[in-house]
Amino acid sequence: MTDSFAINKANWDERAPLHAASPDYNFAGFIADPAYLSGVVTFDRPRLGDLTGLRAVHLQCHIGTDTVSLARLGASVTGLDFSGASLAEARRLAAAAGASIDFHEANVYDAVEVLGAGRFDLVYTGIGALCWLPSVDRWASVVAGLLRPGGRLFIRECHPMLGTLDETVEPAAPRYPYFEHAEPMVFDEPGTYVEVDRELTHTVNHEWAHSLGEIITALLDHGLALTAFTEHDSVPWNALPGQMTHDEATDEWRMTDTPSRVAASYTLQAVKASA
Question: Start and end of every Methyltransferase type domain (predicted)?
Fold first, then answer.
């Protein structure tokens, strides 16, 4: 497993400056407008509720656009990521945007040891995070460890149904695992999911699937109670090129042909049992 994390870290270290320069992440918008929020946080803002004064931790925060957005909604935010290059960009964005955020470099599985147990009112995980982790049960134990009694998990994630689809055929058809598996899926891709000005040289990455049942069961097993769950027919990137259409109103992508036939993402909330 160490090799998988090392391979993925090299991939994300290279992506970080390219993503920070990409118009899709829009660093310029954050710097120019103190009210600007990421598209992911904007999409879920009605579900997030009032974050004023909450101690929040953003796990797998990447270059910090969602992290800064949470801070702008009033939370006191800590960001954690295993990529030092990503955190360098996140710190640069936060400083330019005037956001005070405490960033830490660590594997997400080490978050409780690094940040301390029971410190947070909110654990936030943005889209495209769980697929990089081999064990969703171990992730759920970290979430439970970080939350205070009564604290909340908020996650928006790619739907595992979408994750099974092969984007190289039309119409897209199931090809990849739906359920968790021991060995990683190995991909070798020179590109990334946003517009960048060059191809990657560290092109290999390792990913894992996790079913909805496995995710929910893991949270229940670690003392969290599910409080909200919504499935969406859209995602914030063009997951199936040539088969999705961009919705300008929501800045999301959905299937061009009958969007209702594919669950593309979901939002899940859960609360840790009170002491």
Answer: 58-153
Q: pLDDT means per 10 residues in the chain (275 residues)? A: 87 96 95 97 97 98 98 98 98 97 98 98 97 98 98 98 95 96 95 88 96 98 98 96 95 95 97 89
Structural domains present in the chain: 2-272 (3.40.50.150)
Residue type, position 90, single letter: A
Residue 265, strand partner residues: 158, 232
Angstrom distance (rounded) from CA 57 to CA 149? 15
Q: What is the 3-state secondary structure (H, E, C) of the chain?
A: CHHHHHHHHHHHHHHHHHHHHCCCCCHHHHHHCCCCCCHHHHHHHHHHCCCCCCEEEEECCCCCHHHHHHHHCCCEEEEEECCHHHHHHHHHHHHHHCCCCEEEECCHHHHHHHHCCCCEEEEEECCCCHHHCCCHHHHHHHHHHHEEEEEEEEEEEECHHHHCEECCCCCCEECCCCCCCCCCEEEECCCCCCCCCCCCCCCEEEECCCCHHHHHHHHHHCCEEEEEEEEECEECCCCCCCCEEEECCCCEEEECCCHHHCCCEEEEEEEECCC
Cα separation, 272 vs 25, whole angstroms: 32
Q: Kind of pairing, strands 120-125 and 55-59?
A: parallel
